[in-house]
Sequence to fold (1152 residues):
Amino acid sequence: MFSDFPLLSLVIWLPIIGGLLVLAAGKNDVLVRWLALAFALLTFLVSLPLYTGFDSSTYQMQFAESASWVPTFNIHYSLGIDGISMPLILLTTFTTVLVVIASWEVIQRRVSQYMAAFLIMEGLMIGVFCALDAVLFYVFWEFMLLPMFLIIGIWGGQRRVYAAIKFFLYTFLGSVLLLVAILYLYFQSGSFSILDFHDMRLSMNAQIVLFFAFLLAFAVKVPMWPVHTWLPDAHVEAPTGGSVILAAIMLKLGAYGFVRFMLPIVPDASRELDWLIILLSLIAVVYIAMVALVQEDMKKLIAYSSISHMGFVTLGLFVVFNIFEKTNSVAGAAMGVEGALVQMISHGFVSGALFLCVGVMYDRMHSRNISDYGGVVNTMPVFSGLMVFFAMANAGLPGTSGFVGEFMVILATFKANFWVAVLASTTLVLGAAYTLWMVKRVIFGKVTNPQVAELKDLNARETLVLGSLAVMVLLLGLWPAPLIDVMHASVGHLLEQAVRSKL
Amino acid sequence: MHTLSLVIVLAPLLGAIIAGFFGKVIGRAGAHWVTIIGVAISCLLSLVVFKQIIFDGVAPYNASVYTWLVSDGIKFEVGFLVDQLTALMMVVVTFVSLMVHIYTIGYMRDDPGYQRFFSYISLFTFSMLMLIMANNFMQLFFGWEAVGLVSYLLIGFWHHKESAIYANLKAFLVNRVGDLGFLLGIAAVLMYFNTLDYAEVFHLAPSMANVTDDFVMNEQWSVITVICILLFVGAMGKSAQVPLHVWLPDSMEGPTPISALIHAATMVTAGVYMVARMSPLFELSQTALSFVIVIGAITALFMGLLGIVQNDIKRVIAYSTLSQLGYMVVALGASAYATGIFHLMTHAFFKALLFLAAGSVIIAMHHEQDMTKMGGLKKYMPITYWTFLMGALALIGFPGFAGFFSKDSIIEAVHISTVPGAGFAYAAVLIGVFITALYTFRMFFLVFHGKERMDEHTRHHLHESPPVVTVPLVLLAIPSVIIGAIAIEPLQFGDFFGHAIMVLPEHNVLEVLAAEYHGASNFILHGLMAPAVWLSLLGVGVAWFLYLKRPDIAGEIKQRFPGIYNLLDRKYGADDFNDAVFAGGSRSLGRFLWRFGDIKLIDGVMVNGTAFGIGKLSGVIRRVQSGFLYHYAFAMIIGLLVLLTWFVF
Fold:
């Protein structure tokens, strides 16, 4: 029934129009909040048919739309989703609702602009996941940075200007290379269609150059070592909502770029240079986890933890070539890619929840320093229960979503290489160490700071936000099949593309 | 059987959820009733299952409940396998858990976290049942980590105590080191067997016996050996084998009921259960069995020695648990899996009894755990005294008591085992018998006999514990005395386990023992002619002499041999080493990587260096800059469009 209805356009433009309306509503903060919530909820509801109406038996793009945009250059407004992008869109619409609710009373300054920025950003991010035309993709990709830049720069902390500019310059640097790569592909193929890029032949040299352009563009976003240092600064300075969107969705865009551009467009170069990505992923898992261990600022710690967890995503995506070489079939490689995709969704929930937890404490104490806390469980038992739960999910406890992706990636990696699997598994110890050590110092222990003794437990609004995330984390951990089943066809197709030579 | 298994697993979970989320609503009595009823249902139904499988000859049940996920065409399922081994474990776990639930009413009576505690121990029962009833490796790992989580929550139950929250973090992390190996072992199973289902893996195992692969340094390694050793690393964490034993003594920071349930009777024996379950794999690797027996022997002997110098009553029992776990592991290494499980069972009863009796003493002493401040408690606490004595006699393997049968079987099995390392193990377990008797009766005499060393106030209030405490003691004392004599014949020499445990003919030490076995009383007589019994009586005698007859000598020995005493008192330096090297080392490394790698090198040189250069340049065009962020943003969009236009035309 949705075959002709432009559902994807609706999901993209509804929040953007909503954002503009919220902006127009201006000074009336109450109206602004309810309007923003209404649009966020509506967008979430409208995005649900993408799951219920999804046909998981095919890898073909679904809910596809196409219209000519700039005929001179063969640029199209073409949209479509597959089993890889669809869950990410739902993650975006779900998270935005929570962010709007979480910011309800916290943001008192320029409320309409704040809410508008999030709604517009939501639409733009969904646009990135839907775009099948490279120019359209690039436009969404670039414009998406602006609201985040403004969110950090206006509602951020002390060093917000430094963080915002660092964030912008870093990501902009990557983007420029992406643009050059896209233009090169256009001049070679005469089309801006991403699916056409997938099928075009490319020489090894061209592929290698494109590989590094893509790598820089997407590695900054993921982020991968050594282009990761913008993330801790951005997180620390960003308001809670900004951190949540940044961790839950923006980082996924980089990984999505690897899936949509790198593997299918430059498969031979990816195969040749997969060791580089695996190496950088392992550095993320081990080196960054060590750095996370010694952080004194909770947000920085979770930011480093994010980088470490994203290492599993890139690892899962790029072990496929090793497995293929060993077994000569893609049959054993799907688990790595599917694990990476599950890790993306799970990390969206878990890191988002942890940033919200820090936000809850920051709103009360105006400090993110671990040493200012201790014994929070005595005054905030409900909050502490949830925080320990999310910490356990972050440490990859089975039964939570955090386990599923890591488990699958480690299983797949073992097939590729024993030692890579050993190093990747150190996250079991290191991830638990930095997360639970923080929990020990913040949540448990005696109350030493008189401010902690005054803390009030979660209010209904905060309980709703954290509670719904906890439900998602638990559901996905106990029964990940509904999520993974929609991916099979698309991942199978992606693997075929990844191992098919284009030379 | 399907519904039965589901109810057994879910009843404690439901109790935990109700007590955990609605603790305030249902109140303290509500919380203990709902969880006790849940566990009681589990226990009763486990007995029904036990009867069906063991006595009625119902075929083992193996089926999946739901599909967790499918990837690469491999199904990951949640399901149950209930065979003889599982049925026995279910009865032990749910029975001890039920006793501990009842006991907790008395022990935690005045604790503000009453409901939370009941919720946790019920959640533990659920997790442990998931672990032992799993029919695949994925669910085994789920249960494995879930019991670890509850253990973490319970060790740190008194979260205001710095020592408790240090101990629970340590326990979790050390267990995670073991789990690292365990997870890799599971990954190896998946890689070579292409399934995680027990039945399929065990069916394929013989065909993998001679398969090798290059894991390390391009050397060919037997696949089965690598899998077994990796899995056993997990068991070393959970069952606290050297060198991953360091967390168990510290876990005594938790309330005593959980020391009995989790850190003595059930969770710590999960590793032993797992190896017995994997017997079709371990049997195929002589190397792995050797590794197992040597690790077990080291643990059995050296951890027992530490028990002699401890003054905290719970820590003595904790080191005893470590040592006894070593005995079980030694049995596994000698391919006497049934004996390992036999000792697991008798140990579950008498060690839970000892812990709960120690808890009864601790209540009476107003939460004083130092034995040097006790003494002469016999006349104040008769029920505790007699039940503790039953437990102690069972522990040292006094002829006729439960521990005697299981421990003597282990010693005999190791004696005739031909696995490399069995000779060392035999010596270790024999000396261990003497050590066990020494530390056990040192504790017994210090607590219940001799001078009353407590202060006047405490002495004045000394009295026997209430029935909710003593009834579980009595109920646990009964199996601690008789279960050995009853169970030895079917468990050791009969066909109790059927196909649940697989032993190759050339490793089958129990068959040799069975030929010499002529009934339980004969077994006792035979035991009297072997060294073990006499060593244990000697241990009791030495303990009596040193701590009751001539208490001054013990102090003199301590002064005469300060080196040995310090070595034991510092626990061979294992904690100091871990603190300095692993904990301290990774913190220093992390600090270096952060300060030098991230801040100095990447941010300092690469990022800000670039920015500085650009900053110089932009000083020239400073006038265009207004300082408003959205101007920058706007300028960037325009710049982008210009760039786009330039490229396109």
In short: Chain B touches chain A through 63 residues (CB under 8 Å). The first helix of chain B runs from residue 2 to 21.
